[in-house]
Structure formats: C-alpha cells, structure tokens
Amino acid sequence: MVAPEAPDGLGAEKKSLTEALLYLDGVTVTFDGFRALNSLSFTVDPGEMRAIIGPNGAGKTTMMDVITGKTRPDKGDVYFNGGTTDLAKLDETQIATLGIGRKFQKPTVFESHTVIDNLRLALKGQRSALPNIFRRESAAERALIDEIFETIKLTDHRWRLGGELSHGQKQWLEIGMLLAQDPKLLLVDEPVAGMTDAETAQTAELLREINANGHSVVVVEHDMTFVRDLGVRVMCLHEGSVLAEGTLDQVSANERVIEVYLGR
Ligand SMILES: Nc1ncnc2c1ncn2[C@@H]1O[C@H](COP(=O)(O)OP(=O)(O)OP(=O)(O)O)[C@@H](O)[C@H]1O
C-alpha cells in the first residue's frame, strides 16, 4: 500500500491501521503456485459500505475466505477493529463471534421451519437449535425480531415456512438472520443473482438501510444496476489485486477495468 505522510506525522498506512474497521495489507494467497490474491491491500472504514466487482477468478471469494478465517494468507496483514485484532490468528468461529457475518451467494434458510423460527435460531448467543425454538424469547428478543422483520420487509410472512418464500425473500431472510447476530461487518456475496429487477432494487434499499443503521458492509456483485443503486465506493479486483477504486463512474471509466471486465 502506498503510504504518503499524513498531516499529523503518522504514515497514512499506520493511520489506516489504527482507524479502519477492516485492514488488509499485502495479502497473498497461493494455491498450487497460483496466486489467487496477489499483495491485496484495502481498508473498510467503520460505517462504510463498499462494493467489490471484478471478473471471474479475480479473487473475490478468496478475499472473503481470508477475512472470515476459512483461508489463511501466505503473507500479509488482516486486522479488524482499528488494528486491534489480527484476524489471521483466529479461526472461523472466533471471527464470527467478533462480529463479522457472511452471506454466501445461495440462500441457506431452514426450509421446513417457519420464517420467524429461522430468525429465532439466528439470535446472538443461541447455539443450540431446538431449545431455542421451544423456549419463550425475551421482550428484547421479540423487539429485535420485529425490528428485523420491518427491515427485511417480511413481517407479513413470519408464519410461512422458509421453503415457501420466493428466492428474493429467502435472500432477505438470510440477511435478517445475519442481522440477528448484530455484526459490525457484513460480507455479502452476489445477493441479487437470480432476483427480479424489483427484488434487486429492494435489496439495494435494504443494504443501504442496514448500512445507515451502523453496520459496515462489503458486497460483491456483478450487477452494475444494483451497484449503481447502492451509491457507494467501488473497488475492482483483478488477478488478486485492486485494479481500480473510486465512484462507480470513475471505476467504469478506467480503461483497464473496461478491458478486463466491463467491456467483455
Ligand atoms: N481451493 C482452491 N484451490 C485451487 N485454486 C483455487 C482455490 N480456490 C480458488 N482458486 C483459484 O483462485 C482464483 C480466484 O478464485 P476466486 O473464487 O477467489 O475468484 P472470484 O473472483 O470469487 O471468482 P467468481 O466471480 O467466479 O466467484 C481462481 O482462479 C480459482 O480457480
């Protein structure tokens, strides 16, 4: 990472390390000699939402795997919470407990449970499934569930079975299940793949609302209409590194981005 001197005398890199919610510097991951991540460096600020684009094989999934502890970097730094926590030293469960939630591309709701039970099962601190459904939740938990239902617009669907929801509704429910864990950072992988245009627009609104409520969000997506709707800083990955970063207009005007991704 280029580190120009910041006005207060701290190098910009150090300043980022102390302030960023998520800090990656020089992260390299090699599979059988192939560099899936090649000295990848970027930061996410507290309260920031960031969109990540890039061609197939650019390293987007590997990047999320490194942040969540599924894959260990060969080289480089991965810090959370203003540089206080070295994620490369923690396992997946410890990282989830710290407040990093991940939504995979395909919805994985419990189809034979009601929508509300899906949320109950996801409540923070509830690790054993069955007792959690049968016990009465506290007033605070009920209020949280109601609030999440409002956010994900599924209040009227709470008594339906998970399996009866549309694809888009399942994705929103799963995002709600992440919210039940109250994560500081949500990693969301291609949430609008397979959604209708209306569902796609509603998902952008949902993520904006979640972000406005104080959660940082990193969202990987190929759908440029959706990325435009998000209205956030965009980063294009290519061959395991950051190719371009800025507003969507700035990134889409970048000749290399057009060459390797948008123009294809
Ligand atoms: N476990 C693995 N073993 C070997 N190679 C891997 C492994 N995981 C990923 N790769 C390779 O690393 C590169 C980056 O893959 P990655 O899945 O991170 O890209 P991506 O940007 O998420 O792509 P997509 O948009 O297709 O999901 C690819 O060339 C992929 O084949």
From TrEMBL:
SMART domains: AAA (SM00382). One of its GO terms (molecular function) is ATP binding. InterPro entries: AAA+_ATPase, ABC_AA/LPS_Transport, ABC_transporter-like_ATP-bd, ABC_transptr_urea_ATP-bd_UrtD, BCA_ABC_TP_C, P-loop_NTPase. Gene3D superfamilies: P-loop containing nucleotide triphosphate hydrolases. SUPFAM superfamilies: P-loop containing nucleoside triphosphate hydrolases (SSF52540). Transmembrane segments: none annotated. Keywords: ATP-binding, Nucleotide-binding, Transport. Residues 22-264 form the ABC transporter domain. The keyword Nucleotide-binding applies. This is Urea ABC transporter ATP-binding protein UrtD.
